[in-house]
Amino acid sequence: MTSEIAEPPARAIANGRTVDDTADVKGRIEAFADQVSEIIVGKSHSVRLAVACLIARGHLLIEDVPGVGKTTLSHALANSLGLNFRRIQFTSDLLPADILGNSIFAQAEQRFIFHKGPLFSQVVLIDEVNRATPKTQSALLEAMEENHVSIDGVTHRLPTPFFVIATQNPQQQIGTFPLPESQLDRFLMRIELGVPDRSSERAMLLGMDRRELLKKMRPILSAEVLQEIQEAARRVHVSGPLLDYLQDLLDASRRRHRIGLSPRAGLALLHAAQAWALMQGREMVLPEDIQAVGVPVMAHRLGHDVENSGESGRALAGNLLHGVLVG
């Protein structure tokens, strides 16, 4: 897969100027990821996957047991971006209007005026998304897919960029409502953090409180820079043989599993691989890029049961990547 690069070099804005050097883009991304990694100690790979999800214009689902840093990672990502940020705690009594907003009658003007809810932010943290009922969960579908919401017959555009980070507790915990396949598919990636290794945990125990560190963080990327980087990722070249490999993965998933990968999943895998390639400072996608992001992109689309290691989506995605050969 060494075909000529048909697209022009990736472009991004750095320090107020437009540059053509992909290395400059890589440097900006690395500075962003490194600052987040200072907060989430010992999880640099998970942090970089989250950054790739952002660059690919996707939404991120973080699933793990309480206390491993899901919410802290979300805050660190938001604080490293020069974007407005809102956090919504999902609970069983939360209503769709609580996140979307309400139309309230203004007596003085004799008309209804729409008051935007917390979803109208550039970075939205949905904490414990599976604590809310399916009705409230479904209110996110249109927003995450279309970047707008429809209320009382009127369409309201969401801000750009728009990035949803949702945290989820394991399904066997009390008071959770499993996300349906249609909503899981709206998340470009699902990642897990897990507990840190012993040395990283020691550094965290002896270091400054994470909440204090979050207060000291400064934005690394502005909205303009982020959008330029996102556009640069979409221009990363994809060769014909690379697309053959991606389609072989999709075909194999449909032959082997009850729930195969959809064309939308194929687009998600492609865009995530382009973002990962850009993060490596390259202007074309390699099979290694697809393999690097394959499990986080495919696992939640292949299986619900994340606790059964033999049948989990992670295991199914890993088997696909090992079983489909690069042509």
Structural description of this entry:
The protein folds into two domains: 12-235, P-loop containing nucleotide triphosphate hydrolases (Rossmann fold, 3-Layer(aba) Sandwich), CATH 3.40.50.300; 237-327, Helicase, Ruva Protein, domain 3. 46% of the residues lie in helices and 16% in strands. It has 13 helices and 13 strands. The strands form five sheets. A five-stranded parallel sheet has the order 5-8-11-3-12. Strands 1-2 form a two-stranded antiparallel ribbon. Strands 4-13 form a two-stranded parallel ribbon. β6 (101-106) and β7 (111-116) form a beta hairpin. The protein is globular, with a radius of gyration of 20 Å. Mean pLDDT is 84; it is low at 1-19 and 305-310.
Please write out the topology.
Elements lengths: L11 E3 L2 E3 L2 H18 L4 H12 L4 E4 L6 H10 L1 E2 L2 E5 L6 H5 E6 L4 E6 L6 E5 L6 H13 L1 E4 L2 E4 L5 E6 L12 H4 L4 E3 L6 H9 L3 H7 L4 E2 H12 L5 H17 L6 H17 L7 H16 L10 H11 L4
Helix pairs in contact: 1-2, 1-3, 2-11, 3-8, 9-11, 11-12, 12-13
